[in-house]
Amino acid sequence: QLQLQESGPGLVKPSETLSLTCTVSGGSISSSNHYWGWIRQPPGEGLEYIGIVYYSGSTYYNPSLKSRVTLSVDTSKNQFSLKLRSVTAADTAAYYCARLFSGGGVDYWGQGTLVTVSS
Amino acid sequence: QIVVTQEPSLTVSPGGTVTLTCGSSTGAVSSTYYPNWIQQKPGQAPRALIYSTNNKHSWTPARFSGSLLGGKAALTLSGVQPEDEAEYYCLLYSAVGWVFGGGTKLIVL
Asked: What is the distance between the alpha carbons of residues A61 and A66, in angstroms, rounded to a whole number?
């Protein structure tokens, strides 16, 4: 059974960089049929796609966040990561990692981690 | 950028049938948008239900089905159970990547 687990600071100061890691267990991040994604959800609001990364390092970002986001993958640790720069209170959200697959969809999700942007 | 539209809320009686829809600002939704449906209950992580229009995951209950209906993607619940009360999100693939709809709150009453 594939499992994804987010980790990282729960509190980030405005203008700083939010950094999260997703650890994949029960399967390989180097699968050619899968992409690894980040989705966020502000409190009381809907889901927002942030972007996806392939095991080769190829990335695809939400245009609205592209200027501030970097996704990366570490195949040796079976992990992938999110960095969001210059955060503001509007970036306060639950951040989820998920697996997407060729042929059009998302299947496994992490439990999510709440990140609050506040001084 | 594409805007994905869903009904804000729907109410259904236990045992009944309800259809949620998902539209696109760019026109009719087709299979090339790879419509996905995701369920989220309060305080829980999202759970994938349907992918590529009408394909179920191994854990998806049989009462959930996906389709294309009148230029939109649709999720139909037949024989609704009280535990189906949740928020349901549509996810479409577009030229600029994946885009979520705003969600439909399904009330079972």
From this structure: 5
Confidence of residue B72 (pLDDT cuts 50, 70, 90): very high
pLDDT of res. B90 = 98
Minimum-distance CB partner of B102 among A46, A103, A110: A46
Q: Are strands B4-6 and A113-117 parallel, antiparallel or unpaired?
A: unpaired
Query: N- to C-terminal Cα distance for chain B?
Result: 36
Q: How far apart (Å, rounded) are the C-alpha atoms in residues B88 and B22?
A: 10
Predicted pLDDT at B1: 81
| Beta carbons of B6 and B99 less than 8 angstroms apart | no
Q: Is B82 helix (H, G, I), strand (E, B) or coil?
A: helix
Name the DSSP letter for residue B57. Answer: P
- B41: closest CA of chain A, how far (Å): 12
Low-confidence ranges of chain A (pLDDT < 70): none
Q: Which of chain B's residues have a Cβ under 8 Å away from the Cβ of A62?
A: 96-97
Helices (H) and strands (E) in chain B, counts: 0, 11
Whole-number pLDDT of residue A102? 81
Which residue of B51, B93, B100 is in closest CB contact with A48? B100
What digits encode the pLDDT tens for the residues B6-48?
A: 999 999 999 999 999 999 999 999 999 999 999 999 999 999 9
Tokens 């009330």 — which residue?
A: B107
Report yes or no: A64 and A50 within 8 Å, Cβ to Cβ: no
A49 touches B at CB < 8 Å: yes
